[in-house]
Amino acid sequence: MANESRPCPCGIGDRFDYEGCGQEVQVEHIKAYVCKAPASADKAVVVIHDIFGWQLPNTRYMADMLAANGYIAICPDFFAGGEAWKPSDDWSKFDDWLKTRDARKINKEADAVLKYLKEQCGAKKLGVVGFCWGGIAVHHLMMTYPELKAGVSLYGLIKDSDDISNLLNPTFFIFAEKDDFIPLHQITLLEQKLKKNCKVDFEVKIYPGQTHGFVHRRGEDISPQDKPYIEEGRKDMINWLNKYI
């Protein structure tokens, strides 16, 4: 999957043919997809998309799954109207594209979304999950916003130089064993830093035989051998949120 002309960790994988159960709303300067729990809920989860943007059906599927488990789920456009990456785009231009979309510079969007959840949806307890690019965003938000009581980062890229030990609340890190873009030594280093310096609950889990994007970009019907791990990753994500929110 990785070569010099395709530096991006995010092959689209299995794009779900899925119509969401929620609706699109305007939240200050950005659009967002919102799906509410079947019964009234006062707990909400922000779902942060990958490079393919807030309209990817797979990410909306994850939001709807969270809603079915009793959460108000919101998937905002953290690119704030900027073009999402498309699989047909020129991969040689990817690095330049990414420079204009820093996953750590999203406070303006996060502020708007958290205000919307509290004031418009009646949310009192908040969490966040994010996939790939969104996983990096989760690292940032969980060190910045104390009102986010739980975070789940799914295959968010890490560098050796990154230190995300200053987590404010419990955070779960999901990684794939065969991720071409997150070497196992980086995951080991992350875990060592967290054990040494982190003052809140955390867990780092590696799923055997899985590749980048497995939880939200793999159809369990398409990859039967991976189905147990896809389901386990999704269940672990929900269990973590349930435990701390």
TrEMBL record:
Chief place where the protein resides: cytoplasm
GO CC terms in record: cytosol
A Pfam family this chain is assigned to: DLH
Localisation: Cytoplasm, Cytosol
UniProt superkingdom: Eukaryota
Signal peptide: none
GO molecular function: hydrolase activity
UniProt KW Cytoplasm keyword: yes
Domain named Dienelactone hydrolase: residues: 30-244
Keywords annotated in UniProt: Cytoplasm, Hydrolase
SUPFAM superfamilies per record: alpha/beta-Hydrolases
PANTHER family the record matches: CARBOXYMETHYLENEBUTENOLIDASE HOMOLOG (PTHR46812)
Protein family: Belongs to the dienelactone hydrolase family.
Name of the protein in its database record: Carboxymethylenebutenolidase homolog
